């Protein structure tokens, strides 16, 4: 409508109001429209109100600068001048959204940068793998993940413990999915076939552990890459573990296990001349000389050796290793004795470094070891997957031990363990895939969740193969389905309810471990017996 440029006096205006009802109606419509526009403008301004001020120094974003403990529901817009987001920058801040659309210069994101928040939708940026931290979006309420074009890596624990995440479409460009990256989510189907079937692919240990997936599709192995070679595929321990139905069959099929060897000829390899050494440092043993037969043999580490290099005796078919002469041995490298036939008792030398450098990750994984004598050296740390996939039925942990890595004793036959009071951290899946009964596993998990590291900044998933919420979970006031299919209700502190409880007008009962009673009766302390519905869990009588 085009308005006249002429002027209207007050008397004319009043006169028209009395004589022209149509004009009055029109004026009322215009007035309401202006009010609505003004109101909407205010709403838009409120929705796009500036976020709490950010602390940025030399391109590094350290979080909010106002010093408040939390910023519930806040939207974080990463500015264009940010090149790096620091470790734990927005850890446990209660933020509801993060926007990377302006972050054109972002090069790296630190560990736990957005962990333990209320994020529901995440746009995952395409950054170099070496610049992506661990557990970036751990423990949120994510239900939608969108990947930027060209993403090749999803780092360790990135989307772990997001129980609302029921589906994810992996980009065709993916070549690596880190350890525990989607553990503890609720993926119904795990589909790797959206990835280019010519890609090399590394699926980390526990990558999809503890979902409710009933179906897994893996990439075919009969396609060649651009060089005419078969792509390299590696699936870590329990990559698809603790799921259901067909997914469990796939988990067993793709479980990381040692290869089958022949018996070979028994004997010792004990001559120092039978081994190879580092050119720069002859006290570092690097492997076996060409032509020396190892199948079925025992390797005797020479007395002058101070270090066993990474991969030194990986997959050579030995049945034992003798450290009795190696009084000066300080370090055993990563994968040093991985994938062999080492059986019976393994006795480690007391000369080894007591810290994490003493024994590398996967050093003795995938063997047949039944007993381990740890070094008597006041050991403080055990590395990731060091003794995974063996035949241990028990382990004595020294009272000097402070830290255990992820999967340290995963996939053995251990029935029970005493955790020393010195222990401050037990890593994800450390004892998963063993022979603990569920009640004991839940009790031990509760102990782990109260350790000092878990009260600060850490992420431990399924240390004993069962799911119990951590005491500092950001999931509150709602039901959570556990990996075994049972349900818990987390209160306003993120802790599971126990006993008889009224939730949204319904009466339920929860066991001491927090699991909801469904389909059976409970005898209360007063002797009364009450039944609970098999489907809803409602109290029937």
UniProtKB/TrEMBL annotation:
| InterPro entries associated with the record | Cell_wall/Cho-bd_repeat, LRR_5, LRR_dom_sf, Surface_bspA-like
* Domain of life, per lineage: Bacteria
Q: Which UniProt keywords apply?
A: Repeat
Pfam families xref list: Choline_bind_3, LRR_5
What is the official name of this protein in its record? Cell surface protein
């Amino acid at each position: 409508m085009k308005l006249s440029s002429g002027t209207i006096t007050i008397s004319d205006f009043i006169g028209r109001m009395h004589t022209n009802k149509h004009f009055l109606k029109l004026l009322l419509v215009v007035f309401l429209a202006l009010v609505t526009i003004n109101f909407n403008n205010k709403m838009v301004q409120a929705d796009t109100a500036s976020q709490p001020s950010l602390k940025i120094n030399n391109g590094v974003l350290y979080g909010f600068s106002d010093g408040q403990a939390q910023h519930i529901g806040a939207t974080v817009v990463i500015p264009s001048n940010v090149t790096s987001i620091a470790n734990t920058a927005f850890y446990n801040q209660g933020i509801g959204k993060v926007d990377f659309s302006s972050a054109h210069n972002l090069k790296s994101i630190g560990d736990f940068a957005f962990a333990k928040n209320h994020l529901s939708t995440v746009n995952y940026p395409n950054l170099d793998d070496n610049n992506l931290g661990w557990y970036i979006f751990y423990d949120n309420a994510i239900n939608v993940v969108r990947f930027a074009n060209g993403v090749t890596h999803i780092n360790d624990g990135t989307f772990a413990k997001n129980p609302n995440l029921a589906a994810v479409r992996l980009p065709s460009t993916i070549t690596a999915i880190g350890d525990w990256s989607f553990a503890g989510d609720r993926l119904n189907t795990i589909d790797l076939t959206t990835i280019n079937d010519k890609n090399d692919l590394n699926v980390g240990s526990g990558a999809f552990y503890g979902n409710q997936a009933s179906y897994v599709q893996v990439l075919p192995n009969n396609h060649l890459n651009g060089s005419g070679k078969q792509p390299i595929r590696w699936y870590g321990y329990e990559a698809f573990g603790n799921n259901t139905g067909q997914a469990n069959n796939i988990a067993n099929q793709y479980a990381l296990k040692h290869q089958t060897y022949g018996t070979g000829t028994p004997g010792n390899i004990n001559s120092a001349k039978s081994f190879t050494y580092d050119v720069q440092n002859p006290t570092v043993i690097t492997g076996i000389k060409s032509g020396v037969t190892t199948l079925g043999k025992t390797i005797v580490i020479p007395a002058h050796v101070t270090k066993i290099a990474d991969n030194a005796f990986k997959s050579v078919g030995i049945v034992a290793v003798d450290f009795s002469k190696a009084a000066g041995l300080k370090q055993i490298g990563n994968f040093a004795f991985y994938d062999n036939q080492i059986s019976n008792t393994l006795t480690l030398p007391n000369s080894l470094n007591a810290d994490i450098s003493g024994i590398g990750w996967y050093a003795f994984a995938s063997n047949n070891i039944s007993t381990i004598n740890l070094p008597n050296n006041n050991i403080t740390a055990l590395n990731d997957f060091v003794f995974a996939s063996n035949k241990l039925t028990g382990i004595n942990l020294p009272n000097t031990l402070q830290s255990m890595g992820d999967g340290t004793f995963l996939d053995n036959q251990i029935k029970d363990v005493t955790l020393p009071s010195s222990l401050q951290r037990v890593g994800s899946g450390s004892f998963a895939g063993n022979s603990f009964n569920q009640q004991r596993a839940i009790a031990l998990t509760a102990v782990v969740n109260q350790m000092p590291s878990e009260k600060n900044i850490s992420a431990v998933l399924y240390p004993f193969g069962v799911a119990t919420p951590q005491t500092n979970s950001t999931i509150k006031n709602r039901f959570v389905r556990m990996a075994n299919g049972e349900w818990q209700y987390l209160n306003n502190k993120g802790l599971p309810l126990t006993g008889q409880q009224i939730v949204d007008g319904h009466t339920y009962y929860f066991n001491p471990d927090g699991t909801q009673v469904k389909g059976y009766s409970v005898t209360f302390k007063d002797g009364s017996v009450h039944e609970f519905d098999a489907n809803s869990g409602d109290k029937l009588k």
